[in-house]
Write a structure and sequence with these properties.
- The chain is mainly α.
- The protein folds into two domains: about 5-105, no CATH class; about 160-255, no CATH class.
- About 55% of the residues lie in helices and about 0% in strands.
- The chain has twelve helices and no strands.
- It has helices at about 15-20, 35-45, 50-65, 70-75, 90-105, 120-135, 160-165, 180-190, 200-215, 220-230, 235, 240-255.
- Helix 2 packs antiparallel against helix 3 (about 50-65), helix 2 packs across helix 5 and helix 10 runs parallel beside helix 12 (about 240-255).
- The longest helix is centred in the middle third of the chain and has 18 residues, at about 90-105.
- The N and C termini lie far apart (about 80 Å).
Length: about 260
């Protein structure tokens, strides 16, 4: 609905909106907690004729449409609103916050700053010092067709992908004879015996491999494929548990390290 300024030409202050007769509030002109807070907040914060007029029109429109601000505020608090007389500010806070948020959402963007950035100012100072010292910098153009210098690139592969893709110089000398836990334990004990004096390092690497796979999104089939690549029979690899596959892969990679 479009507001007609002529409807409010007689209004000069916020009090005129509620007490047009200037005789104080009657029973029909009674101000709710919400009206009082809106009026006091507008008088304290709005500056200039336009801002004051906007507050006057807003409050008058709320009064004309018979909107019960107290009921709205209580509804926004839920089943247990604070006392509107003892805690009037907290009582109206959600409603006032919603109004301010709507105004901010429709506010125009702030104009871009025309001042130079700290980096640009630092570069300008450096150029002035070079000019004062009589130093001239010249840019050397790279010949056409010359290869651009290679830039270092960070690996985008996850730890589990790096572990699964690790190649062995040779497959382990032995593998588990079955997919059961007992068979894996027997093989692991025998396999570890090859590395005398390195038991702690062996256990650490195997534990790290298991942790990498457990905390990743690696699929079981990926571990099966890697285990088969390391020499484990397909019939055993496809039946082996996720944890035992992780242990087998970690142990094989220690042998190749």
């Amino acid at each position: 609905m479009t507001l007609d300024d002529s409807n409010y030409s007689h209004v000069t202050t916020l009090e005129d909106v509620f007490w047009p007769s200037r005789r104080g509030p009657s029973s029909s002109d009674f101000l709710s907690t919400g009206h009082l807070l809106l009026m006091s907040d507008a008088k304290a914060k709005l500056r200039g004729a336009v801002g004051a007029a906007a507050a006057i029109v807003l409050i008058s429109r709320i009064r004309d449409d018979r909107i019960d601000l107290d009921a709205v505020a209580a509804h926004m608090h839920g089943p247990a609103p604070p006392d509107k007389h003892k805690e009037s500010v907290r009582f109206m806070q959600p409603l006032l916050g919603e109004i301010v948020s709507t105004i901010k959402a429709n506010s125009p963007p702030a104009p871009a700053s025309s001042s130079q950035s700290p980096e640009a100012e630092q570069l300008a100072r450096a150029n002035r010092k070079l000019d004062e010292a009589g130093i001239v910098l010249t840019l050397v153009k790279q010949p056409e067709g010359a290869p651009s210098p290679a830039l270092p690139t960070a690996s985008t592969k996850t730890p589990d992908e790096q572990t699964l893709e690790k190649e062995l110089s040779s497959n382990p000398s032995s593998v588990p004879s079955a997919s059961s836990q007992d068979a894996v334990n027997k093989w692991l004990k025998k396999h570890q015996g090859q590395f005398r004096g390195k038991a702690a390092a062996f256990k650490k690497l195997v534990a790290e491999a298991c942790l990498v796979f457990k905390s990743s999104e690696a699929k079981r089939q990926d571990l099966v494929d890697t285990a088969m690549k390391y020499g484990l029979q397909k019939s055993h690899a496809t039946k082996m548990s996720f944890a035992n596959l992780s242990t087998f892969i970690g142990a094989c990679q220690f042998e190749a390290a």
